[in-house]
Design brief:
Blueprint (H helix, E strand, L loop, with lengths): L1 E6 L7 H17 L4 E3 L17 H16 L5 E9 L8 E9 L2 E7 L23 E4 L2 E7 L19 H7 L4 E6 L7 H16 L3 E5 L1 E4 L2 E4 L3 E3 L5 E4 L6 E6 L14 H20 L4 E4 L4 H14 L4 E5 L7 H14 L2 E4 L3 H15 L6 H22 L2 E4 L3 H6 L12 E2 L6 H11 L8 H5 L19 H12 L5 H8 L2 H13 L1 H4 L28
Parallel strand pairs: 1-2, 2-3, 7-8, 8-9, 15-16, 15-18, 16-17, 18-19
Antiparallel strand pairs: 1-14, 3-4, 4-5, 6-7, 9-12, 10-11, 12-13
Helix pairs in contact: 1-2, 5-6, 5-11, 8-9, 14-15
């Protein structure tokens, strides 16, 4: 069977545009004499549609368009993801479905069986599970259709499974000769390699060819990397879609292909490409043409400025340096060096006159109290006001520059350096920021070495460094990764690395600063546990160590 995999990039709610992409892919498949063309999960409405699913007008538009798509099909089959609806007395009556159509009509509908309800997934809120798994005979093959999560519960791969049932195993027992899985699987570094191993186990243990198509695109904070995969009956990966872009290719189950050994590249290369893609997608899908970044002379803002240039071009990136009396001359020089290297436009706006005036106005009310973090926070808030004013006046997209380490422990100022629409590196630890910066400089110096080598500082008081308030970043990031991504408890972390007082302090900071993260810009997700929708803790609570 010749299968055309169409790794398309849908936009949530753009039913007409998504329809056209599906039909264009179908036309390409016909030209290539494919037997069946397959498109990703919910590719007609975009993934994840969230509460649009609860709007009747939205569901009806999707249903009408799905029928129109089916009416355009001929002998070549088309499989795509959509919403379907049934009248139910209990539950939502709405399904996440794979629609199979040919000869002008819908021939089969396979609903998703396993409805995820963890991390960034909240499909239980909207969708009912399939009542049955179905085999569809087509052109001499028995097609086993499944949707994303349905294939993530294989008994031979997972030591601990989330669900009692295994829909794909059920399809094999029913006599499926080809497995087709349509997916919208969010990116996290390491997941594509995990996906390869898991799908390889499925196809090898069941001795059956498998085609897995995943969407490519970004929807606000969620990045979808594509990387569609096809496996032969030996469990060998033989076809692999491009990463972080749309793709189209043919998988012929009768053809011998050379096995593909590597599905994923280095952390630095993958994550940098993912972040550039995420920013580019955000701009394209929201209509922003230009980006503004506050450039401090530190490594975080330097990296974000570089990513912005790669995403939208140097002619569309503007940076603003906003020195105060505490800003070092080195920071200004380093920023200017980066600006020259990147070829971007810039402004210098001192915050000192405004800072002095605000202190003067507040002085009678503070009644001679010594300066403390209050005055420190006034400075980034002035910078935030400047940047938001520039954003409003010129239509710039303002990017935040805080990294995951800072966001985790609250080393950031609400309504100050947290101002912005998108947290570009808010899911990248500080130590990984350095790794990526050194990767960028692997062939030539782009991010000035002075920025990489100097001690990180917020420069909100004289001779300040981050380590005045925080543990060294290599230690801090070890603690954070164990707590946030590995879900380890206090005693487990202390047993592994020691430093009980430091560990307690760090975990307290993470828990206490939830109120800041609730007001933060969405963070581009590149890890298995990012801040945002996939990590939900209360602000008001008494769980303190």
């Amino acid at each position: 069977m010749k299968i055309a995999l169409c790794q398309i990039n849908s936009i949530i709610g753009d039913i007409e545009g998504n329809k056209n992409k599906i039909l264009q892919s179908y036309a390409q498949g016909i030209r290539d004499n494919a037997d069946i063309v397959i498109c990703p999960e919910l590719s007609l409405c975009g993934y994840p549609p969230l509460d649009f699913v609860e709007k009747e007008e939205f569901r009806k538009k999707v249903e009408e368009t799905a029928k129109f798509i089916a009416s355009q099909t001929g002998e070549t089959a088309l499989l795509f993801g959509s919403i379907t609806e049934e009248t139910e007395d209990v539950g939502t009556g709405v399904f996440n479905s794979a629609i199979l159509c040919y000869e002008g009509k819908i021939q089969a509908v396979q609903n998703k069986s396993l409805i995820p309800n963890y991390d960034v997934f909240d499909e239980v809120r909207y969708f009912e599970p399939a009542k049955a798994c179905l085999i569809h005979e087509f052109k001499g093959e028995k097609l086993g259709l499944s949707i994303c999560e349905d294939i993530w519960n294989d008994v031979d791969f997972w030591k601990k499974r989330r669900y009692q049932t295994d829909p794909v195993n059920a399809l094999v027992r029913m006599g499926a000769t080809v497995l087709l899985n349509i997916s919208a699987s969010p990116y996290a570094y390491g997941k594509r390699e995990q996906r390869r191993k898991m799908l390889s186990t499925v196809s090898k243990s069941d001795n059956i060819p498998l085609a897995y198509v995943c969407c490519a695109g970004a929807q606000t904070d969620l990045i979808f990397d594509g990387g569609s995969m096809c496996f032969n009956t030996h469990g060998e990966l033989v076809r692999l879609g491009k990463a972080f872009q749309e793709d189209y290719f043919i998988f012929d189950t009768e053809q011998d292909y050379s096995p593909i050994i590597q599905a994923e590249r280095s952390y630095e290369e993958e994550v940098l490409e993912a972040l550039i893609f995420g920013v580019k997608e955000y701009c394209r899908k929201t209509g922003f043409k230009k980006i503004i970044v506050g450039l401090s002379g530190g490594i975080d803002s330097a990296l974000v400025a570089y990513i912005a240039v790669k995403a939208v071009g140097k002619e569309n990136v503007h940076v603003v340096m906003m020195p105060s009396e505490y800003s070092s001359q080195g920071s200004l020089k380093d920023s200017e060096k980066l600006i020259d290297t990147l070829g971007i436009s810039s402004d210098v706006l001192s915050i000192q006159p405004v800072f002095e005036k605000i202190k003067e106005v507040l002085e009678p009310h503070f009644k001679g109290l010594p300066e403390d973090v209050t005055e420190e926070n006034i400075q980034p808030r002035i910078r935030g006001m400047y940047l938001m004013a520039m954003s409003n006046k010129f239509g710039y997209l303002l990017l935040t520059t805080g990294n995951k380490s800072e966001v985790a422990v609250g080393y950031a100022t609400l309504y100050g350096d947290m101002c912005g629409a998108l947290g570009v590196i808010a899911d990248v630890y500080k130590t990984d920021v350095y790794r990526i910066a050194n990767y960028i400089n692997r062939n030539e110096e782009i991010i000035p070495c002075e920025i990489i080598n100097k001690a990180p500082s917020a420069e909100l008081r004289h001779n300040q460094t981050d380590q005045d308030s925080l543990p060294p970043y290599d230690l801090l990031d070890r603690i954070l990764k164990m707590y946030l991504e590995e879900n380890k408890e206090l005693h487990q972390i202390v047993k592994e690395i020691g430093y009980p007082d430091i560990v307690k302090k760090v975990l307290n900071l993470v828990d206490f600063n939830e109120f800041k993260r609730k007001q933060a810009a969405p963070a581009l997700r590149v890890s298995t546990k990012a801040f945002g929708y996939g990590r939900r803790f209360p602000i008001v609570q008494k769980w303190r160590r």
